[in-house]
């Protein structure tokens, strides 16, 4: 009967590992999304800054 118990433990361990893997995937996806959003914000801020600099240079002329 010990062999059957061992098989059940492996199934439970396998399910736990699958759940942990899915949770980790969701977490890393969330981090990647946040990094992408951060990059977009930085690009937008750089664009706004460049535009305001161009406006100031145009006023000087």
From TrEMBL:
GO terms, biological process: protein stabilization
Keywords from the named record: DNA-binding
Protein source organism: Thalictrum thalictroides (Rue-anemone)
GO molecular function: DNA binding
UniProt-recorded name of the protein: Dna-binding enhancer protein-like protein
Keyword DNA-binding among UniProt keywords: yes
